[in-house]
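Protein in question passed on here:
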Amino acid sequence: MIRHARSSDISRIAEIIVFGKRVAYRSIFRNDIGSFHDLQVLDLIESYQASPDIFDHMLVYDDGIIKGVINQKDAADGRELCEFYVEPFFKGKGIGRELIQFFIEEAKKQEKRKLYLWVIKDNLPARRFYEKNGFHASGEERLIEGTDVLDMRYEREL
C-alpha cells in the first residue's frame, strides 16, 4: 500500500534513505567519509524532526514494513521528484514501479502538466528505470556542489 508518510515513520524513512544513498552512490562519489561519516541516520532523523512539514510531501510503500519512500514538491507547472529510494533488500520486487506510478497518477489527478527529477548521470540503473517509466533527459545538466559528479534533469509530460 502506498500512503502519505507520518512522523512515526521517521526512523524507517531515514534508514531507507541513508542506506539507499550508500548503496547507490558510494561507487559514484568514491568518498567513504561522506558515505559513512557524514551521512548518518540519526542526523537525518534530527533534520526531519526540525521540519515536520516534510511529511506533507512524502509517500511511503508500506505492506507492514516500509520498503520505499518518495519525497516530492510542487514546481512551477508540475511536480518535482526530490528523493526516491527503495530499501536495497527489496529492490527488484516492483516496489519502485508502484511508487513511481502512484506519483504519476497523483500528479495527473491534480492536473499537473509536467514531472521533473534530477538523477546522477553515472547512475545508469536509475536512469534506465526512469526511462522505462516515461521520463526522458531534458539536456540540462549541473555539477553536484563540491564534487565533479554531474546531475541530469529528466522530465515527463502528463
